[in-house]
Each structure stands twice: as C-alpha cells, then as structure tokens.
Design goal:
homodimer; DNA-binding; mainly alpha; Tetracycline Repressor, domain 2; Arc Repressor Mutant, subunit A; elongated; 205 residues
Chain lengths: 205, 205
DNA sequence: AGAAAATCTTGACATGTGTCCAAGATCGGG
DNA sequence: CCCGATCTTGGACACATGTCAAGATTTTCT
C-alpha cells in the first residue's frame, strides 16, 4: 500500500504528464497546420492560451517537444488502424476493407498524415528524429503485415513478398493519394481504395 | 543572320544563364548535404568562392533559387533514367534491368534523392514548390509507365493498373530503399533490385 | 584609353528564433 | 491564514536569416 507521500508524488507526476500531453496536443495542431520547419515554439504557444516560456518548463528543448508529439501521433495512429483486419471473412471482403480503411484514415486526418511524412523526411537529415521515426515505421509495417497474413490465412496461400516490400508499396499508394487529396483531387480517395484493393491479391502471385 | 549586337546580346544572356547554372549546381551540393530547411543563402555562398550577395544578383529570392535548383535536378534525373527501358529484349531481362537501373540510380546519388523527397514534402506546405514538384512527379510517372508499356509489349499482355498506381508503388519501394540505404543497411540496394524485379510482373495479373 | 555597363563585395537592417531567467501568480499542506 | 513549492509569465539575449542598397571591381564597347 503506497504511503500518502507516494500518492501525492504520483498524483503530481501524473499532473505533469497530463500537462505535457495537453501542450503536445495543442502543438500537434499547429505542427499539422504549418509543418515542422515553419513552426516555432512561439507560434505553438500563440495557438494556446499560455506563454511560450511554459513550453520550456514542460519540455527540455524543441527537439524534446517534437519527439513527444510524434510519439503521441504514433499512439493515435496505431489506435486508429486497430481493428481494420479483424472483421472480414472472405478474401474479397478483406481486400475491400483494406482499401476502405486506408482511405477512411486518410480522409479522417490528412493534415496529420502530411505532418508524418514531413517529419519522416526530416529524420533523413536530423539524427534526433531517426529512432522515433524508425519505431513508427516498424509499427506501420507490422500493421500492414498483419493484413497480409490475414489475407493469406483466408486464401490458404502464402505471400510472395517480404513485409518491408508490402509496407513500402502500400505506403507509396497512401502517400501519393495524400498528395493528390491535398491538391484538391476529388477522386484521390476512391483511387486509393481501388489501388489498395487491387494490390493485396498481387502480393500472392 | 543575326547582327553582331544580337550575337553579343545572346552571348551575354548565355553567360548569365551559365552563371545561374554554376551557382545552382553549387547550391545543389549544399542543399543535398543539409536539406532544404537547414540551408541558408549564406551557407550556400560559403561553399563557393563568392559572397552571399551574389546569389541575390542572379536569383530574385530564395524561392527562385530553390526552384531553379529543383528544375536542374529534374533534368539530371530524367537524363539519368533515360535509356533504362530500351535495351532488354525479354520480359525477364526487362524486369531485372528495371531493378538494376533503379538500384544504380539510388546508389549513384542518394543525397540528391534525399533532397528530392525533402522538397516534395515541403511542397505539401509551401505553395511555391507545388508546380515544379508536380511536373517532376509527372515526368517520373511517365518514365515508369514507359517501362510498364515496354513490358506489356514484350509479353503481349496489358497492365492491370493505372500509371499513377504503378508509379506510386515503385516510388514507395524506392523511397524505403533510400531510407534503409542511408541508415547504413548494406542490403537495401539488393532488396530494391529484387522488389522492383518482382513488382513489374505483378502489375499484369 | 576612357566611359558605361556589368559583375561582385560588404555591410546594414528588420525580423524571427531557441534559450534562459528573474519575478510574479497560484496552489496545497500545516 | 500563511509559507513554501510549484507553476506561469514576459522579457532579454545571442544568434541566424532573407533582403537590400551603396560602393568597389571587372568587363565591355566606342
């Protein structure tokens, strides 16, 4: 049984963690709007009701803040994707569900996905982001591979490509759909749906 | 027949254009090294033997310089890719040539490709880059589609996907191979080779 | 050779940035 | 209610950046 001091300690740490989350969520909005390169700590603070100095009370430096935001995005992303694979009972159902799910994800938060690709690009130049980006990429790859495995189980066949290749191709489709969607194309979502539905069976020839 | 004045005029304009190219090439090196966000006009000038003010004599502003650099990269890229499709005489040859060519391109100038993905990401936030990026994307898509068409002609079959989908998938493979290659993976190039060789036939099922 | 035009350098200006800090505000336990 | 810890503010500092203009230097033309 924890002592009252320990309870107080934990409650205080929780409060600190809650505040970090709160500030990170606000920062995430601004980051998604402006992108990594064009977002300053002051701009982030301006979109909250607090001062820019507060950010430095809760985060060691800008890199710490961005990293924390990206980790939070990762959690939201994994949650969003969860349950995509489970429902379908036939291969064709799974293939269409795959396309529908990815299209829905894109339609739901295109600006956050834009930020993801922004940060992933920056990670090729800034060491600080590399580990977090690699971890998120790994999770997304696992997610895609679970989809492929489910399709394999439903068809009784085995995939003829590696997990990384499967992820790379789905990611390519998703990224280009995002690009066109943000450019104002009304058909980008439907095309993404179709392309993903078609890609899944291709991985088994 | 041009007058001497016209000849002189053209020669001067050419000289101006040559200088622009020269400065853009130097800028391209620095940009490839540091990425778009971390490169300033002064840093670019420091890597040449000239002053930073000179850049503003040859380019209206930073956006003009970057745009010009990207256009130059586009030309080099299209040239590099040209002739990839022509040599193969059997489907299998073409498929391996496709993988080999893309892997060779990646191995040849990974930093320039990194810059390309950087600028393409930035174009999702900065209006100024959007047109040039779209044009380059179009050229790359055409290049991939010529490859697919050549494969179709050799096999006597018809592709079962759209040009944009084919480009998106090859681009996904290429981008992820670049990521792993830059991260120090020794197998990224070989994997890209194999994945591309395998992808081409998949587009015809 | 000398004038005119071009090329190039240097320095300045305004702005924006990350970081840090000292002082005030707020809160919670004694 | 009061005091200490915690939270928050607003500003200062050092630095970097894009832009620009005035002057120096080189090239070009007559």
């Amino acid at each position: 049984m924890p002592s009252t001091a320990a309870v107080r300690q934990r409650s205080r740490a929780d409060k600190f963690e809650d505040r970090r989350r709160e500030l990170a969520d606000a920062a995430l909005l601004t980051l998604a709007e402006l992108g990594y390169a064009r977002t300053s700590l002051r701009t982030i603070a301006d979109n909250t009701e607090h001062s820019h100095g507060l950010l430095h009370y809760y985060f060691a430096d800008k890199s710490d803040l961005i990293t924390y935001c990206v980790q939070r995005y990762k959690d939201a992303c994994v949650q969003r994707y969860e349950g995509l694979v489970a429902e379908a009972s036939t291969p064709a159902e799974l293939a269409t569900a795959c396309g529908n799910g990815l299209a829905a994800t894109l339609a739901d938060a295109p600006l956050l996905h834009r930020l993801w690709y922004d940060v992933r690009s920056q990670s090729l130049f800034e060491e600080a982001f590399r580990d977090d980006v690699a971890e998120i990429d790994g999770r997304l790859q696992d997610m895609i591979w679970r989809l492929v495995r489910a399709y394999a189980d439903l068809t009784g066949t085995e995939p003829t490509c590696s997990p990384s290749a499967a992820y790379a191709m789905f990611d390519g489709l998703f990224q280009h759909a995002l690009q066109r969607h943000l450019a104002g194309s009304g058909t980008a979502l439907d095309e993404l749906r179709d392309h993903c539905r078609d890609l899944l069976p291709r991985l088994f020839v």
